[in-house]
């Protein structure tokens, strides 16, 4: 983009849409030519369509000449490299030419095929020439940009207020005409948007939000002023909006060392380590307002890395960015992303401070980035526009924290009026966007879309809506163990359509081996407080794994990841778990969100644990049928402002590159029913856990560390028992080589580390690099001690033992992203010797279904 862009008056945010306007004008221009040709030459009966791309990079070649051989009939490809050419008869020969590429001739026999034309570069080999450029000048300029990053970073403005208007649209594109004409969408045909003679777009989601933001005294506050949101999958609109905002099209700040989007870390070209990932060179300069501006072009040193290519302008007085354009190379080792383009420009607030003016993000998502020969792949086209106004760095007054909630503001009459006014000022809707809201409204009435909406909601939140009832969660439908055999469960709860702030749930299960029923129920009530507060009660009479972590809910926080952690494990267990224990449980729980960083949980509970033929409760030769406990659990959650989504009595958390801590205390009393009367004792369990994910350029590291202590002597089921597996599934927070039971500890610490290398080795290997494979390294360790005299309470069974002096450790090496969904890992136990062979395997292959960008 030329430097003149930066001279535009600050009130004209509409210029961000010039590219689209030009493209739209070019489309109508081409359409008028086609109409004229059809009128003038009625004998033309057929067309040829296709796209032209570079044979190596697979990038589109715009404005290439396409001519039918030995005729004057021809045209140029459009900005996307596509063309539609009228043909009088078949067969015919197309001649494709473009400067810097070899001429290509293709014989076309009929009009049914969509051509995918690849042009080869016209390169001549010369004798070797060694050129050593003097880049000292441009490097010195670049160092000044990097040196002033912190001062120019908009996130570092201590006092700031501004308003932004954000518009996000999502279309499902490259649909054939027959899609709208099919029986499925026949009644909703006018909801589709026509993009060419043979393709349509389906409006999927649209959101417009006006927000006010303030920063003062290291505090940040934001308030949604107006919001208009709609999508064809109405049950998951909130989740779609959150994923788009926080994972896919987040605000881009190139002053940070890396931009965290798509769950990956993209290094910035002006980061401290930018020259490790990019080739950057000075390409232009100009003078504006008597200040010199420099233009730098940059491109990745390896096109397989998760990096950008593009250009940026800087002002020589402050060495601040005035604009930057970035796009993703098509060959990058990234799944489902066909295209990503970002444009950000900035405005000067005063002599020394700069802030955003506009951001525009275009993203194309697809299951397969490679185009088919006969038809184009369907894409999700995501467009996001952010316009900033009224940026002020003077004295800032923080917002009123008792303002309306975002839920009450969304789609209100006041919001619609505010949106219309802001939209008119910033950027009017284009023809596609104008039709989006109307099309979405019509498609939501479609029967097929309604069913798809329910299944989509089930995939995300675990429940299938049946009107006033929800069926689920689906991960509890089936399980298998030695006691119950094949266990089938029917879980139900009231839905949001019946009660907004109250939920009643229940389940019943049956095991085909023990011929017994298991059941449970719960109630939850959302208290009418400003901060999120939930009062709930829960009861169950069911079987649970002896080694189930008492604090697993604080490790697997997302409510729909509560199963064994791996679908592969459900069907590949070599030895069904024999150590299942029946438990009658009742609790009352109070959850309160103190602020965005702190959460509190209080839970008194009653438990009765029953013995069975595998888990005998024996005290000095006397077998006991059960023992009871009374507990009080206190948990404090510290998350450093982690983002989350509020669901129906659930919360889904999004990573923020900062650790999440849980500090938990469990106070309790046990009672044993012995002949001479109940024997009781008091105990306490202190537990701390930390979970984190850190992006490191193309790599990322996931960490979970847990440690604690049990004070007082307790029955052995209350000790800390690390969980193992006897299947081929790769577990996140279990030990892959441990047997079902192994250690019993009252002082313990465990660590689970997983490093995804992002293909740093595979990206450099010929042929292999085309597969987009990624290396993984895992490390798991457990260290514990058994200090108390717990045998005095209940005899310790033979399958449990005190931990060895050396910590138990296992390490894995493997490959993930096989076919974009499979992970294979070879796990090896580091410890050697017969002492470890008794309760763990030496090595083995483990598998996992794993899908990510």
UniProtKB/TrEMBL annotation:
The chain crosses the membrane at residues 27-48. It comes from the Bacteria. The keyword Membrane applies. InterPro entries: CarboxyPept-like_regulatory (IPR008969), DUF5686 (IPR043741). Keywords: Carboxypeptidase, Hydrolase, Membrane, Protease, Transmembrane, Transmembrane helix. One of its GO terms (molecular function) is carboxypeptidase activity. This is Carboxypeptidase-like regulatory domain-containing protein. The lineage of its organism: Bacteria, Pseudomonadati, Bacteroidota, Bacteroidia, Marinilabiliales.
């Amino acid at each position: 983009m030329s430097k003149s862009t930066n001279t535009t008056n600050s009130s004209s945010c509409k210029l961000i849409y010039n590219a689209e306007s030009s493209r739209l004008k070019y489309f109508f221009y081409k359409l008028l030519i086609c109409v004229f040709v059809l009128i003038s030459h009625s004998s033309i009966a057929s067309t040829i369509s296709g796209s032209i791309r570079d044979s190596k990079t697979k990038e589109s070649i715009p404005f290439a000449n396409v001519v039918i051989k030995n005729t004057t009939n021809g045209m140029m490809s459009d900005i996307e490299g596509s063309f539609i050419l009228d043909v009088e008869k078949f067969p015919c020969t197309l001649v494709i030419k473009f400067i810097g590429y070899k001429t290509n001739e293709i014989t076309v026999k009929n009009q049914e095929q969509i051509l995918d034309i690849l042009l080869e570069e016209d390169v001549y080999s010369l004798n070797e020439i060694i050129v050593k450029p003097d880049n000292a000048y441009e490097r010195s300029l670049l160092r000044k940009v990097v040196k002033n990053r912190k001062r120019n970073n908009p996130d570092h403005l201590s006092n700031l207020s501004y308003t932004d208007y954000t518009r996000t649209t999502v279309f499902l594109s490259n649909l054939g005409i027959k899609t709208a004409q099919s029986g499925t969408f026949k009644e909703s045909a006018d909801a589709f948007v026509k993009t060419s003679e043979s393709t349509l777009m389906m409006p999927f989601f649209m959101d417009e939000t006006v927000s006010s933001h303030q920063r003062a005294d290291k505090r940040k506050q934001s308030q949604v002023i107006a919001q208009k949101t709609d999508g064809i999958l109405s049950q998951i609109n909130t989740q779609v909006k959150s994923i788009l905002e926080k994972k896919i099209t987040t605000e881009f700040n190139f002053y940070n060392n890396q931009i965290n989007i798509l769950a990956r870390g993209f290094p910035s070209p002006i980061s401290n380590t930018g020259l490790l990932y990019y080739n950057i060179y000075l390409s232009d300069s100009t003078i504006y307002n008597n200040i010199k501006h420099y233009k730098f072009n940059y491109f990745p040193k390896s096109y397989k890395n998760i990096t950008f290519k593009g250009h940026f302008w800087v002002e020589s007085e402050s060495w601040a960015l005035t604009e930057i354009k970035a796009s993703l190379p098509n060959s990058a080792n990234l799944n489902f992303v066909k295209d990503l383009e970002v444009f950000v420009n900035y405005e000067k607030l005063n002599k020394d401070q700069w802030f955003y003016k506009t951001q525009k993000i275009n993203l194309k998502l697809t299951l397969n980035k490679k185009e088919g020969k006969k038809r184009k792949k369907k894409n999700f086209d995501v467009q996001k526009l952010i316009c900033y106004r009224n940026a002020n760095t003077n004295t800032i007054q923080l917002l009123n924290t008792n303002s309306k909630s975002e839920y009450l503001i969304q789609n209100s009459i006041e919001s619609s009026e505010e949106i219309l006014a802001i939209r008119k000022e910033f950027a009017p809707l284009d023809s596609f966007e104008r039709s989006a809201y109307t099309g979405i409204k019509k498609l939501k009435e479609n029967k097929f879309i309604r069913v798809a909406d329910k299944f989509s909601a089930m995939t995300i939140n675990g429940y299938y809506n049946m009107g006033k009832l929800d069926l689920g969660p689906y991960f509890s439908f089936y399980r298998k163990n030695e006691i119950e055999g094949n266990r089938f469960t029917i879980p139900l709860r009231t839905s949001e359509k019946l009660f907004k702030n109250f939920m009643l749930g229940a389940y019943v299960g049956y095991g085909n081996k023990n011929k017994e029923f298991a059941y449970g129920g719960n109630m939850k009530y959302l208290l009418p407080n400003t901060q999120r507060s939930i009062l709930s009660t829960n009861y169950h009479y069911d079987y649970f794994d002896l080694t189930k972590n008492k604090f697993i809910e604080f490790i697997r926080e997302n409510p729909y990841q509560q199963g064994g952690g791996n679908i592969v494990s459900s069907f590949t267990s070599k030895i069904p778990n024999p150590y299942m224990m029946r438990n009658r449980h009742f609790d009352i729980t109070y959850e309160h969100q103190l602020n965005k960083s702190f959460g509190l949980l209080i839970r008194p509970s009653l438990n009765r644990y029953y013995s069975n033929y595998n888990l005998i409760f024996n005290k000095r030769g006397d077998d006991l049928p059960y023992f009871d406990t009374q507990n009080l659990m206190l948990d404090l959650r510290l998350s450093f402002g982690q983002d989350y989504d509020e669901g129906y009595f659930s919360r889904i958390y999004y990573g923020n590159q900062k650790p999440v801590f849980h500090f938990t205390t469990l106070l309790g009393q046990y009672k044993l029913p012995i002949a001479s009367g109940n024997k009781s004792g008091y105990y306490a369990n202190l537990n701390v856990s930390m979970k984190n994910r850190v992006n490191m350029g193309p790599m990322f590291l996931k960490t979970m560390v847990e440690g604690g202590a049990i004070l007082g002597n307790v029955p052995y089921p209350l000790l800390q028992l690390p969980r193992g597996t006897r299947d081929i599934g790769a577990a996140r927070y279990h030990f892959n080589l441990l047997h079902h039971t192994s250690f019993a500890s009252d002082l313990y610490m465990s660590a689970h580390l997983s490093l995804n290398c992002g293909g740093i080795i595979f990206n450099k290997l010929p042929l292999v690099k085309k597969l987009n494979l990624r290396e993984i390294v895992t490390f798991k360790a457990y260290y514990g001690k058994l200090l108390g005299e717990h045998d005095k309470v209940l005899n310790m069974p033979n399958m449990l033992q005190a931990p060895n002096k050396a910590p138990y450790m296992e390490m894995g090496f493997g490959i993930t992203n096989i076919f974009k969904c499979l992970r294979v890992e070879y796990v090896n136990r580091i410890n050697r010797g017969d002492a470890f062979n008794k309760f763990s395997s030496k090595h083995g292959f483990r598998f996992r279904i794993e899908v990510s960008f």
